[in-house]
Amino acid sequence: METRAPYVLIGSFVLAAILAVFGFVYWLNNTGGIGPRANYHVQFQGPVPGLLVGAGVLFNGIRVGEVTQIDLAPDNPRFVNATISVASTTPVRTDTKVGLDFQGLTGVPVVTLEGGMIVAKAGERVTLIAEAGAGQSMTQAARDALRRVDTVLEDNSGPLKDTIANLKTFSDGLARNTGKINGILAGLEKMTGGGTPAQKITYDLRTPQNLGPAGKTLSASLAIPEPTAVAMLQTQRMQFAPSGDNPGFAEFLWADSIPKLVQARLIDSFENYDIAHAPLRTTDLGQADYQLLIDIRRFRIATEGEARVEIGLSARIVDKNGKVVASRLVETSEKLDKVEPAAAVAAFDTAFARIAKELIGWTVQAV
Question: All domains of the chain, ordered by start, with CATH?
Answer without folding.
Answer: 7-133 (no CATH), 201-366 (3.40.50.10610)
